Amino acid sequence: MMSQISLLMTHLLFLPLTLCLLHPPPVHVPTLVPHVPTPLLRSHFSAHTQLDFTTHCNSSCFHRGEQEAQKEQLSEKLAFETLYADGSRTLTTVDVEGDDEEFEGNRFTQTPRARVKPRHKRVRRQIYGADGRFNIQGDNFLLDYPFSTAVRISTGCTGVLVSQQHVLTAAHCVHDGKDYVKGARKLRVGFLLPPNINGSKVTSSKRPLVRWVRVKRTRVPKGWIQGPQEVSMDFDYALLELRWPHRRPFMRLSVAPDSDDLAGHRIHFSGFDSDRSGQLVYRFCPVEQESSDLIYQHCDARPGASGSGVYGRVWDNSLERWERKVIGIFSGHQWLEIDGESRDYNVAVRITPLKFAQICYWVHGNRLDCAQD
Q1: Are the C-beta atoms of residues 242 and 167 closer than 8 Å to each other?
Q2: Is the predicted pLDDT of residue 330 greater than 60, yes or no?
Q3: Given a cut of 50, is residue 16 above it in pLDDT?
Q4: H, E, C per residue of the chain
Q5: pTM, whole model, 2 decimals?
Q6: Mean of pLDDT values over 12-30
Q7: Residue 4 burial by CB count (10 A; 0-12/13-18/19+): exposed, middle or buried?
Q8: For residue 19, what pLDDT band results from cuts at 50, 70 and 90?
Q9: Which of 358, 332, 276, 324 lies closest to 160, judged by CA?
Q10: Which family does it belong to (predicted)?
Q11: I want to staple 224 with a disulfide (CB 3.0 to 4.6 A). Which of 171, 206, 283, 348 is the partner?
Q12: Which residues make Cβ contacts (< 8 Å) with residue 118, sequence separation at least 6?
């Protein structure tokens, strides 16, 4: 196991040496202008958590993001609900600021154009061929970045730390599209602690300990709540605000670039897969397909990994170097019907410029902090 982890860390450390010298241009992020929140009736918390999330998509669905969107449609989907710890909730509508030319050219909604690559043979659902997942064990790895940014969600999912007080996860982990799940009433986030945190001797049979922290506020986009399953998968993300700040490193967000602009054309994520109870599991793989809102791949994953922060090495113009950044959220499994063929993929929701602006506002509470390029 230790030799596997050593090889894994070598891969992570030396990956930048293989990067291309040409860097993608900066992406312009639009501005969301929130309105005064409107009180809503309290949630019934009647939904059941569905960890094994599967959808179907045809050619029309796959290319939907390429169609020009009106400002009113975007504003409706980017409105959001806020659930508070006492069970109350509000709806916040927003306006999207941008020149008409930017919307006519789909500058904010098409990143990148949907494309289909050669088909890969499907072996079996969610695990493709030999299992390519790694268990992350030991103090030096569990508490090391980027693995330390992965956290557990009390409803059975995974999340990723994106600020000192915020966790990004999948919307279906807290809401089924109609109502909040029962476990969202007292939602908690779990931080992994090494099994020898109290001075006990580490053995391979010991599982990491978990320190649970209550969630103060949950935010879910209206695009998830209002649409049918096939549409709302594009908005399968939610942000959790903790009751108090944590002290661990977090991973910054980025607008998802074209896969050709990712280091090694690969994505990575760590989660708490249900078939490896109590263990943090890491995997990486190439991007197979892309649409405007989703990233299609064959990274091995099982239920429980939903909500994992999907990251890649992205060029940071301000730092002038390649940085690991969250570019999506692992959602689940999708059957894709293209050109008369049925293909299956594990799918992540990509962070588009508009989604970045929304999540950034949720984190900072100030739209001006999210308006710059």
Answers
A1: yes
A2: yes
A3: no
A4: CHHHHHHHHHHHHHHHHHCCCCCCCCCCCCEEEECCCEEECCCCCCECCCCCCEEEECHHHHCHHHCCCCHHHHHHHHCEEEEECCCCEEEECEEEECCHHHHHCCCCCCCCCCECCCCCCCCCCCCCCCCCCEEECCHHHHCCCCHHHEEEECCCCEEEECCCCEEEECHHHCECCCCEEHHHHHCEEEEEECCCCCCCCCCCCCCCEEEEEEEEEEEEEHHHHHCCHHHHHHHCCEEEEECCCCCCCCCCECCCCCHHHCHHHEEEEEECCCCCCCCEEEEEEEEEEECCCEEEECCCCCCCCCCCEEEEEEEECCCCEEEEEEEEEEEEEEEEEECCEEEEEEEEEECCHHHHHHHHHHHHCCHHHHCCC
A5: 0.87
A6: 60
A7: exposed
A8: very low
A9: 324
A10: Belongs to the peptidase S1 family.
A11: 171
A12: none
pLDDT band of 103, cuts 50, 70, 90: low
Among 107-121, 220-234, 243-257, the range scoring the smallest mean pLDDT is 107-121
Nearest to 251 by CA among 319, 327, 306: 327
Token duo for residue 185: 């009433």
Tell me how many degrees the CA angle 226-172-311 measures, rounded to the nearest 5: 115
Q: Nearest-CA neighbor of 331 among 346, 344, 312?
A: 346
Query: Looking at the predicted structure, is the pLDDT value of residue 68 above 60?
Result: no
Of 174, 142, 167, give the one whose Cα is nearest residue 279. Answer: 142
Q: Considering Cα of 140, then 145, then 147, then 151, what sign does the dihedral take? A: positive
pLDDT-wise least confident of 132-136, 249-253, 263-267: 132-136
pLDDT above 70: residue 271: yes
For residue 17, name the pLDDT band (cuts at 50, 70, 90). very low
Which pLDDT score, from 0 to 100, does residue 60 have?
Answer: 75
Helix axes of 71-78 and 353-364: crossing angle, nearest 10 degrees: 40
Q: Which two tokens stand for residue 304?
A: 């429980």
What per-residue confidence (pLDDT) applies to 197? 61
Closest CA to 350 of 218, 237, 231, 220: 237
